[in-house]
Design goal:
By secondary structure, this protein is mainly beta. The protein has no helices and 12 strands. The termini are far apart.
Amino acid sequence: MKREMYRQGDILLVAADELPAGAEELAPTDRIVLAYGEVTGHAHTVASMQALMYAQGDVRYLKVSECGADLVHEEHSTIHLLPGVYRIVHQREYVPDSSRLVLD
């Protein structure tokens, strides 16, 4: 089965069949921030009227509406996301004896 995946900088969205049981909706605001840039303050965002964000423990999910959604960042091209549920993955980099999140 082919799975949709989208990468924008240090963020990867991987299609999931459905939200996992027990996933809780995070309080919506005018935009959903998937990740903030450490240096510039820019952010990977989706308009909240196009999607909802959920959490199950430390794992975050994005549920995109039937109209789709635009993943936006000031330093990357906008990506149109197809409707569905996506697991949000933050890229990690190797550091001797550990790992850390990649900072965009």
